Amino acid sequence: MSAVPAKPPRNWLAWGGTIAFLVAMTWWSAHGIGFSLTELLCNLAGGSRLLQESWPPDFAFLPRLYEPFMETINIAIIGTVVGGILSIPVAVLAARNLTLGRVTWFVDRNFMNILRTLPDLFWAMLFATAVGFGPVAGALALSVFTVAVISKLWSESLEAIDMGMPEAVRAVGGTWLQMVQFGAIPQGLQHYVSYALYAFELNVRASMVLGLVGAGGIGMILEVQRANFEYERVSMIILAVLVAVLIIEQISETIRRRLE
Amino acid sequence: MSTQTGLLQPQKRIGWATWATFIIAALFLWSLIAIEFSPGRMIQVPAQVARVLSFFYPADMAYGWSAVLPAIMESIQIAWIGTIIAAILSLPLALFGARTLFPRMARLVKLISATARAFPEILLAIYFVPIVGLGAFAGALAIGISSVGMLTKLGAEVVESIDFGPVEAVEASGGSRILALRYAVVPQVLPEIVAHWLFRFELNIRASAVLGVVGAGGVGGVLLNTLRYRHFEKAAAVLLLTIIVVLVIDMVSGEIRRKIIRG
Fold first, then answer.
1. B133, A43: Cβ pair inside 8 Å?
2. Where are the bilayer-spanning segments (chain A) (predicted)?
3. A134 partner at 20 to 30 Å CA-CA among A57, A181, A209, B254?
């Protein structure tokens, strides 16, 4: 007698429901956005013309990118440092094992989740409206965005620390602050540095496009050239951005790997 | 008989952490000076933010239901189609990008995916808008292409971590490489890969929300216009509805992901 075990029965209702949902959602979406392969194929001719116009990149334009590019990096640095510092209390209070009380935890956790819902460019638009166009708006926007990124990730790693050390600090009469400072943060420090570097990578990438909404950096030049259909310059900017992002990512990833 | 009280302090020396802090502080100061973010300017910020926020109340919900909600729906549709495009393209790429299965091909695939990841989707949209015209379709293509990179990378990592027993079993019983993929690899990796798809969908909702800035559909263009014309009550409706919809989708999607991973 063969000993092949019987296949477990499938829950056809759940399967059918899932597939029906996926198909319906896809149909609704494709219909809603006007998805059409024919349109895509018909427009490929226009696309190839656009690509011809964008090639070769206008290398004579490169020197003029230096200043806005440095501004972009400055925005990313400020955003990461300010956001990195602010995210420490937000993350600690959102960690279930360290927080001050249920109410603090609940408020902080929801605050964090709400911060996370808005994309970086929304913050940039808001700050550009509040403090005026320019790099300051971008730096503020990325600070908020960084808090959203780091605090969520770090509060989760803080929840996984060994509670022995914090309890020991408490047992010898340490205050809550001392418990966090000497018992918890040293254990989470490595993760914190790793997440901060990750946030920096995201911020560099984000700061390249902040200028599209007037929040400073290289994106502002991009927006001007795009509006004037100077596609050779647009592709020069994009090429420069791409190379810069890849280099910074490589450096950051190397540091992160060495930390582990 | 010792008179020592307390523990010995470890010897202080200037370690890498001190150096790193010093360098970061220097970079930070340089950046503040470069963008002219002086202390005088900093003091103004809270008042400026509070002033604009005071205009946000009350949110114009009539505008919210009639104009904002359809735009948010469009953002969701863009994100969904973009995720589907990326899922279809990245599944084979993830298999071929696994070092353990295809050592030589994996390198090429990983290089392509790293390049694709470096592009912010909004830059891709700048190219797709002139090709397929203003609107959501361009946005969906941009989101799709830019998601392929990350999904390929994460997917390849999942494939690299599988148990090789079933693969060897299929091959030992005469199955081809393709059959091994179908019966030994895909069933092992699919749950985690689907979880990554859902996670990417959550990210794509945020990404598609900003595409309107370059005319690629969705709610971003609405926010930009309401702020540009100083219709702050309408902008408040945009923010409120975006926050609520994204929170709900995050919660549902997160719950499904947890269920899939647990099996």
1. yes
2. 12-30, 73-95, 121-150, 202-222, 234-252
3. A57
User: How far does B177 lie from chain A, in Å, by closest CA?
Assistant: 24
Kindly state the DSSP code that residue A210 receives in the 8-state scheme.
G
What ipTM goes with this model?
0.84
> What distances in angstroms separate CA B237 from CA A127, B50, B66, one per listed residue?
17, 18, 11
Each as own residue / partner, the long-range contacts of residues B180-183 (CB below 8 Å, 24 or more positions apart, any chain) are B181/B95, B181/B101
Q: What confidence tens digit (pLDDT) does each residue in B212-229 have?
A: 888 888 899 999 999 989
**What pLDDT shows up at residue B4?**
56
Q: Contact, A166 vs A177, CB < 8 A? A: no
Q: Tell me whether the omega of the peptide bond preceding residue A56 falls within 30 degrees of 0, making it cis.
A: yes
In B, which residues are within 8 Å of A130 by CB distance? 45, 48-49, 51-53
What would the pLDDT profile of A172-205 be if each residue is shown by its tens digit? 999 999 999 999 999 999 899 989 998 998 898 8
Taking phi over 0 as left and psi of -120 to 50 as alpha, with beta for the rest, B28 belongs to alpha
- Do B35 and A75 lie within an 8 Å CB cutoff? yes
- Greatest alpha-carbon pair distance for chain B in Å reads 87
Q: Please tell me which residue, B146 or A4, carries the higher pLDDT value.
A: B146
End-to-end CA distance of chain A: 53
Tokens of A72: 């972009």
Q: How many residues does chain B have?
A: 263
Determine the distance in angstroms separating the CA of B131 from the nearest CA of chain A, rounded to an integer: 5
d(CA B145, CA B141) in angstroms, rounded, equals: 6
Instruction: Please tell me what DSSP assigns to residue B164.
Output: S
Q: Half-sphere exposure of A89 toward its Cβ, with a 13 Å CA cutoff?
A: 8
Got the DSSP string for B75-111? HHHHHHHHHHHHHHHHHHHHHHT-TTT-HHHHHHHHH
B222-226, long-range: CB within 8 Å, 24+ apart, which pairs?
A: B222/B67, B222/B68, B222/B71, B223/A122, B223/A125, B224/A125, B224/A213
Q: Is the peptide bond before A57 cis (omega within 30 degrees of 0)?
A: no
A25 touches chain B (CB under 8 A): yes
Query: Residues A141-153: what's their mean pLDDT?
Result: 94
Cβ contact (<8 Å) for B126 and A226? yes
Residue B8 pLDDT:
67
Domains and CATH numbers, chain A: 12-42 (no CATH), 57-259 (1.10.3720.10)
How far apart CA A41 and CA B71 sit, in angstroms, is 26
Look at A118 and B114 and tell me if their CB atoms are within 8 Å.
Answer: no
